[in-house]
């Protein structure tokens, strides 16, 4: 036993005998601060105003927060230091399109400083002014008598008038609605969005319709085929708008194995529509199934199935798959393919 301990015990015994107690300072507590990990959005950001709904998830130990918004590394907004929970980002005025980084610079009650960030895309509603082409309704022979088995038999279909997108839906349009870009060939605002699943397109459409007050939807397979062959103006071309595929389409032999900006071919089809052959395959609303032989009006396909219809061929397709009457079906829950995209239609009523 060393000298200090002996002295400590000696004085403790004296103090105890005098009715005093002595405690070592072992019960002092230290403040523990837990770092907050993420920024949460209460709703999906759709407009600049929704930035005000960005909050820090766990606000337990926060003392102050300063919010920053940057674009391309340049600071465009900074809040005052906020000292009250929930430390929401106050509404900044954003008037330009683009991809933004939102940063919360946090000081916690232990005086530690750290930052958490999230990203945000905003595109003004003008990007959602989707160019549409009117397709006058009528009766046509759907399918082919000489193509693959699933293109037979030809059968009469009567369609009401509708409008259809002049272009495939672009990455900028998808991002303006969804805040994300799933494309395999990204960083090209005017290229078609791809790697989109059929179910995700339904979410896109419902949000788009809420934003625009319109009633967009995917085309039925019959509407897609009627528009692609040129509607009542059809000249019966092998590809949408020409028998010479290079005039109208990005396909496996001329695409450079990638998507291209929509509407870049000099020639449209008979109705003025771009890229119905090639660039990206286009999802239709129907379940894929054999054609009926009986005449029908505004057919929507069977009520259930396992795969949805894709039409038109894409940037990687050979000539047989690029034919305007060719059909494919794909398991949308499995495949996330960089040559699957879509365009929209609207009923005319
Ligand atoms: Ca296409
Ligand atoms: Ca086929």
UniProtKB/TrEMBL annotation:
<dbReference type="Pfam" id="PF03781">
    <property type="entry name" value="FGE-sulfatase"/>
</dbReference>
<protein>
    <submittedName>
        <fullName>SUMF1/EgtB/PvdO family nonheme iron enzyme</fullName>
    </submittedName>
</protein>
<dbReference type="InterPro" id="IPR042095">
    <property type="entry name" value="SUMF_sf"/>
</dbReference>
<feature type="domain" description="Sulfatase-modifying factor enzyme-like">
    <location>
        <begin position="131"/>
        <end position="345"/>
    </location>
</feature>
<dbReference type="InterPro" id="IPR005532">
    <property type="entry name" value="SUMF_dom"/>
</dbReference>
<dbReference type="InterPro" id="IPR051043">
    <property type="entry name" value="Sulfatase_Mod_Factor_Kinase"/>
</dbReference>
<dbReference type="InterPro" id="IPR016187">
    <property type="entry name" value="CTDL_fold"/>
</dbReference>
